Amino acid sequence: MTRPTLAHTLAFAVMAVGPSIGCSNDDPGSTASQEGSSETADGIFTVTNDPESTSSSSTAPDTTADSSSGEPSELNCEKIDFVFVIDNSSSMADEQQNLVDAVPGFVESMRTALPSVKSFRVGVVDTDTYPDLGVGEDPLDGCPAEGADCASCDYTLGAFLDKPLSAGNPESSCNFSTGGPFMEGAAEAFPDEFACAAVVGTDGNPIEQQVASLLAAVDPAASADGACNQGFLRDDALLVFLMITDEEDDHTDMPAPQGGSLGEPQEWYDAVVAAKNGKANNIVGLGLIGGSPRFDDCTALSMDGNGAEQSSRLEQFLDRFDTHAEGSVCSPAYGTFFDDALVTVSQGCMNFIP
Prior knowledge:
The protein is of the alpha/beta class. It has two domains: 6-64, no CATH class; 79-351, von Willebrand factor, type A domain (Rossmann fold), CATH 3.40.50. The protein is built from seven helices and nine strands, in the order H-E-E-E-E-H-E-E-H-H-E-H-E-H-E-H. The protein has a six-stranded mixed beta sheet with strand order 6-5-4-7-8-9, with helices on both faces. Strand 1 and strand 2 form a beta hairpin. The chain is globular and about 50 Å long. The two termini are 36 Å apart. The relative contact order is 0.15.
């Protein structure tokens, strides 16, 4: 039996609980009635209360209804902070383009699925500190001796990218409408801004630090006044991160002990939870990673960049989050993954603890 789409189910939730869905219940004038349908605009996103609405191809999770009462669950988040961690090594060109192609549609689907959300911040990081430098002798010291400001955010792991190609040209800019280092998902210019920042290039160091970059990005110190990600991380926002990479994150890679992110999956998880004041419910972990036989379309990573490495440590990290979803980085397109991710993020919004 086919379940209703996520948009269909959440539209039903609006009809069941009235115009005060989620946390945004203080604007009685936000509902415009029409014969046969109505719209609620409780923030930057809009939901149409139309039982025929199929704006998302995702199926709804069973948890959209309270099992004891049968009533739909409410959305509890009004803000989302979304971090994209994008591998910038030489085998990632196709994957980056797939991401650029899929994400704007994902955000459009969220406009329907998450009507309570008023602010949707998006930051992009790559997996090293090497703007367009390629492989250095020391994989943790990518700044040239001269000709660059090595103290700048361009050379800081986990600093959001507001320039194309991992800041390969320090004079370039993606010109975010926010005026800051991150984007606003509701902005009209968001698709173009994301296309600029998310194509991080393929000249990064092949020894990726996927988790270290994420941890640096969500460290509250990085969002402090004057820091590289100033103003990004909010205590009252659902934190969502997506890691897209075709290689494992393993600090035992050569040249040991400097390859990859230091620590173990449990330590990584603990650090992300600590960044959200110990509220694990307020985090959604997403991953487009490699691994066979888990993903039958993912063969071993080849010299020509096809396939992907088995990413057991990244899988263990992601699986520690109660609300998480993983897909194959080897997929020819990412639309299906983002359909599933939409369900997962919606679940995270329901589980959010204000």
